[in-house]
Amino acid sequence: MTSGFVPPPYPQDRLNEIRKMPAAHGHELVDLSIGTPIDPVPEIAMALGASLSLARGYPSSAGSALLREAAATWIGHRFDVEVGIEAVAACVGSKEFVASLPQYLKLRDPSRSTVLYPAVSYPTYAMGATLAGCKAVAVPIAANGELDLDSLSPEVLKDALCCWVNSPANPTGRVSGFDRVVEMGRQYGFVVVSDECYVEFAWEAEPATVLEYGPHQVLALHSLSKRSNFAGGRVGFYAGDLNLVSYLSEVRKHAGLMVPGPIQNIAATLLGDQKHVDVQRALYRERLEILIQIAAALGFEAAMPEGGFYIWVDGGERDGFELAAHFASQSGIVGSPGEFYGDASKNFLRIAAVAPTNQLLGIAASLL
Q1: What pTM was computed for the model?
Q2: How many C-alpha atoms does 121 have within 13 Å on its Cβ side?
Q3: In which element (H, E) is residue 195 found?
Q4: 20 to 30 Å CA-CA from 249: which of 35, 87, 332, 361?
Q5: In this predicted model, what pLDDT tens digit does every residue of 164-201 receive, in sequence order?
Q6: CATH number of 11-35+276-367: 3.40.1440.10, 3.90.1150.10, 3.30.420.10, 2.130.10.10?
C-alpha cells in the first residue's frame, strides 16, 4: 500500500498533558493557548441573529453586495484606501482561506510551487503549502520585523507563488512595514498576501494595510473573529488585485465555499460599527498589562507587544514546553509553546489575553 500524507498532530492537542497540571497543583485551569474571544458578541449583532430571512436560498459565495460594500467602506474609513466592491470577496473565516489559497494559486500558475512565510508565524501558512503539494519556505525575520527576502536565492523567489506577511504578527506582536516585500513580489511575480486579522489591535502605530501600496499583485485578508468577537460566525473577506479576487471568487464558488446568508448580514452591520471595537481594545490592553505582571511574578520578562493580544515570553534556556509546564503548575495558565510557530522560536511561550480581567487579576494577586 502506497503511503500518502499523514496529518501531523494538531499543535493544541499536544498540550493535553500540560492542561492536567493546574489541577494537580491546586490551580484552576486557565487555557490561554488559543486566541479564542471570550467576550460577548456586540449587541447589534445579536439583534440581527434572530432574522433568518436570508437562510432560505444559497448565499453568494463571493459575498453579498451588502457585505462587500460594508467591507470596502470599512477599508476606506480605517486606512483611507479606496477599494471597489468588485475587488472584495468573502471567505469562510480567514483560516480556511490561508489553508486553501496555495492550491488555487498553484492551479492558476503550475510553473511555480513555493510558498514563502515568516519563520516565526501562524502554522497554517506552512500547512497550506503542504496541503497544496507546494514547498513551504520559512523566511528569516529582519531586526525591523520585516521579512528578509534578500536572504533567499533568486531561484527560490522566481518559484514563489505567494508570500505571506502578518502585521501585527502572531505570535510575536511585531508591527512591520510592507515596502520591501511588495517591491520584491512585483519584481519576481509572486502574490503578496497580508494577513491583517489583528490590525485593530496595533497599540503604538496607526492601522496599516498592504493595500496602501496599490492593488497590483497584493491581497489583504481580514476577519471578524478577533475584531468583533465573532469567531463562531466564520466570516472574513479578502481584497486587492481585481484579477486575483475575480479568479479566487470563481474557483471558490466551484468549491462550494459560502458564508451563510444571515452571517453575511450580521458581518456587514459589525463592520459599520467601531464603538464595540474600541471597547474590546481597552479590554485587551488591560489584560496584556496584567499578563506581563504575571510573567514577571513567575520570573520572566515580557514586553507589551506592538500589536495583537498575545504576550511572547522568552524562556532563555528553557524550551517552550518547559515554559508551558512551569506556567501551568505555578499559575494555572496554559500557553502555547513557541515551537508551534517555527523552529526559530522554540524557547518562547505565547499567552493570549482571552481570560476575564477579574480572573487574571486574581492570578496576579496570588503571585505577588
Answers
A1: 0.94
A2: 27
A3: strand 191-195
A4: 35
A5: 999 999 999 999 999 999 999 999 999 999 999 999 99
A6: 3.90.1150.10
